[in-house]
Amino acid sequence: MFEELLMYLSFPFVRYALIVGVLIALCSSLLGVTLVLKRYSYIGDGLSHVAFGALAIATVLNLINKMLVVLPLTVAFAILLLRKGQNAKIKGDAAIAMLSVGALAFGYMIMNLFPSSSNVAGDVCSTLFGSTSILTLTQLDVWISGILSIVVIAIFILFYNRIFAVTFDEDFANAVGTKVNLYNLLIATVIAVIIVLAMNLVGSLLISALVIFPALSAMSILKSFRSVTVFSAISSMVCALAGIIISILAGTPVGSTIVTVDVALFAVCYLIGRVRG
Amino acid sequence: MAALQAKNLAVGYDNKPVLKGINFKIDAGDYFCIVGENGSGKTTLMKTILGLKTPISGEIIFDDGLEKNQIGYLPQQSIVQRDFPASVFEIVLSGCQNSLASGFFYKKEHKEMALANLKKMGIAKLKDKCYRELSGGQQQRVLLARALCATKKALLLDEPVAGLDPNVTSEMYDLIKQLNDDGLTVIMISHDIENVKNFATKIFDVNSMEVTELREVKEGR
Q: Which of A33, A175, A225 comes nearest B51 by C-beta?
């Protein structure tokens, strides 16, 4: 089995998949705690459907680099959703539900109306669940994903203290002069970037899992914000690595394998947390 | 010389005033209590003082070296905080966020200030404990230590004893009195008139809009 793995690793595209996969997993775990605690997890979910719609547009347009369409559209909707959530005339969650199912329906429809290949069902399935897409990344995709991941990680480290402050207590932060709206905007934008990145790895339906599970695992056993952040980052990378390797060896779909490993880790952490009380 | 003055102030939501015709003066060193029933608009008034809301009309004047954004704030606890994974030290340190200025990371002096304020609140040994595992009274002390990191001049406390049992309540009042004796201006929102009468220098009643002066600010501090 080990030799089989080495054989696979001799292919550049497999190495790309591993590197990018692990980087993306790291990014997506970073804002998990903030998302869960600020009750933003549903925004992540909504945005992933928007990203699906955007990807459908990019596919129909037959663009070589789909991220050029997907990224700006998703970021724009992230900002829009945040604004909506704040002055909720249409209730925040209802607005998100409308947007996400709307985007899903729209995406599926245009992929059927303007099929870019003969296998529409296969295309749709791989956008939703990621199937094998991580192994078919071009070198350009790898570079873009790599650079974006590093930017996300840098932003997170630089603004770590402010992200903590804004997540823990918005009112206090506001009262002492921290520009809370600005940082919420930053958080929403970074979430959008993470979602677009993670779509390459696990497909748009499973993204939330990649964001939320590492954070929840860490939160059930650890007690400080820093340790929770570090643990979710490391565990997310390990799960992604394990998931990709298992999927290559066992021939299972990449996205769902990674998420399954994440779920298993969560179960273990939850039990440990329970036993310790 | 007033540190903070409300002049003909009206506060409320969506341009609908909840309270109007508010006039008061808070001097440096005052223990100023804002009292009234639940739902009478105290919290809205407080949010306006903090600059979280813009006044509908009238104005709030900061003076005597006190600036907007330099008031240490003790909010009522939110639901989010109840299951927040954070250590006591992390939370108290976040009180220094306004002195980060354009920097990104806390410096040694910030950490020392956080430690000093933990000691002042008598919770130095809880430093590495998880916030969500503390008792209500301990949590209030943590948030008070955080507020102290944000200010050298004035504290604004929103119902600081809400939900605490009687023993812990009187401890909390003593602690706040101590801070006031040390020279901090205290502004407190409360509906517990009986208790605050024993400490306050001035009481502002949002129903009658009247300020009652109870005692002078202690001199010679």
A: A175
- Report yes or no: B13 at the A interface, CB cutoff 8 Å: no
Residue of chain A with shortest Cα separation from B71: A176
Nearest to A161 among B47, B69, B100 (CB): B100
What average pLDDT values come out for chain A (277 residues) when binned by 10 residues? 83 82 91 82 83 88 81 89 63 76 90 80 76 67 86 94 91 88 90 87 84 93 93 95 89 89 96 88
CB contacts < 8 Å between A and B, how many? 94
Report d(CA A49, CA A42) in Å as an integer. Answer: 11
Q: How confident is the model at residue B220 (pLDDT cuts 50, 70, 90)?
A: very low
CATH number of B1-70+156-221: 3.40.50.300
> Rounded to whole angstroms, how far apart are CA atoms B79 and B84?
9
Amino acid at residue number A110: I
Burial class of residue B34 (count of CB atoms within 10 Å of its CB; 0-12, 13-18, 19+): buried
What are the Cα distances from residue B105, in Å, to A66, A218, A274, B183?
A: 37, 24, 35, 30
Decide if B114 contacts B149 (C-beta within 8 A).
yes
Q: Which of residues 246-265 of A touch B (CB under 8 A)?
A: none
Task: Please state, in angstroms and rounded to a whole number, the distance separating the CA atoms of residues B25 and B31.
Answer: 12
Residues of A in contact with B85 (CB under 8 A): 33, 218-219, 222-225, 228
CA distance B181 to chain A (A): 23
Q: Residue A158: its chain B contacts at CB < 8 A?
A: 104
Q: Domain extents for chain A?
A: 2-272
Retrieve residue B154's tokens. 């004035």
CA angle A161, A164, A167 (to 5 degrees): 150
Counting Cβ atoms within 10 Å, is residue A125 exposed (0-12), middle (13-18) or buried (19+)? middle
Longest dimension (CA), chain B: 48
Q: How close is the nearest chain B Cα to the Cα of A223, in Å? A: 5
E-strand ranges in B71-193 read 71-74, 154-158, 185-190
Secondary structure (3-state) at A156:
helix
Listed by start position, the domains of chain B span: 1-70+156-221, 78-150
Q: Can you tell me the distance from the alpha carbon of B195 to that of A251, in angstroms, rounded to the nearest whole number?
A: 71
The b/e string for A165-174 (b: 16+ C-beta within 10 A; e otherwise) is bbbbbbbbbb
Q: For the whole model, what pTM was predicted? A: 0.87
CATH number of A2-272: 1.10.3470.10
